[in-house]
Please model this.
Amino acid sequence: MISIFSSHYSDQKSKRLQEIAASLYQTYNQVELLALRIESVDPQILSQLSGRGFVNRDILETILGNLLELVAPGSHNAVALTKLKSTFRQSLEEMVDQLYAMVVQSFLAVGDADVAEEMSVATTFDFFRRLPKLKERAFWNRFASLKDPAVWDAYLNRKYKKKLDPHDCEFGKSDSLAEVNIRTRIDQSILERNPHSYNRFLAESNFQQAFDYQMQLVMSSYPGWRVQFYHDVAHSLATSSVGSVPLLPRVISELGGRYYQADLHPETQIGDANFFDHTHRGITTGQTGIIGSGCVIYPCTLGGLSVKNQARHPTVGDFVQISTDVGIFGRVDVGNYSVIGANTEIYGLIQVGREVRIGSSVVIGTVKPGATDNRSDPQPGSIHIGDQVRIGDGAVIENSVSSDLIIPHNSTIPTRSYVINDGEGNPKFVS
Model:
């Protein structure tokens, strides 16, 4: 058998490792360093080619778990103390070898043997230079999960009801918590990139101990931030400044779908501080899709309509909420701070403005006139929904003519309305 760890690789690694280890070490506090658990992989197994030179999925699962440990120490692994690396540099070197093995086998699998080693070394160290940013993104994705009311679970409720006098704590009364718009406070912290403002809010209410528990609850049991990290790894490899890694990003995406039921294409651009809730129900994104930051996304499909190799998936802005069983298909743009209700379907060329509120079971789409299989039919114009528009439950908005349909800013489309283009771009209500 031919090992993938050559002497040239060892020389290249030695030249780069010390510098990057010293830089990364500064991004960890002592609590994180004590919690870090990296699981070793036998070098004799790691170094052998698998099948046609592609990755061993069992090993890849171990490596992804180790990478989770690097961005959120204590979140994934339990390793025998006798097997722990004695220094951070040794842990990092273990991870460099593991990731390099996966990357180089991906290049070898597609026949790029002449450049595999050089490209893989450069790609691996490019990834670890990005690690502080990935660590920061993982934190903010966990923080965004605090928008879930369920982080105030039975343990916290019982604990504070027993310990605190109702007069000492804003949340002492059973109905007080429901009166506080916690999401707004969390969004403000995300905008400021300062979790301490949410902590101050808790402290003002004599609930300062809740934060650590809630973050631990999210880290331990919430899948959304984990699958987003899988996506971050896949996206980093697919968009590396050195060059795209073949095969491996898609395999990582597939593993994310297997474990967390979120099928996030590795080339989808996704911001951070996003809360993906109930991923086991399924969240799907496409290759050319874009999702901003600060969003709350429930099980939904952000898919394409075209089969051409072009921009064909939705673009979602910042602080958008997409509710359960929503389908958004095609080149749909959703503006910042908009909310899309459950079971809504949006397709075609649609522009949704800022702060739009779309109710449940709404249908918004561009529709070809006449028979759908008649290729001579003219393409319909797009639909432009202005800022702060309110669309009631069950409304239908369709455009089947060539001119664009404009829904003016601050308009209200009543519940169960049927709206079409009057032929001049204005909304026409049909009984």
Remarks:
- The CA atoms of residues 165 and 173 lie 9 Å apart.
- The chain has a mean pLDDT of 91.
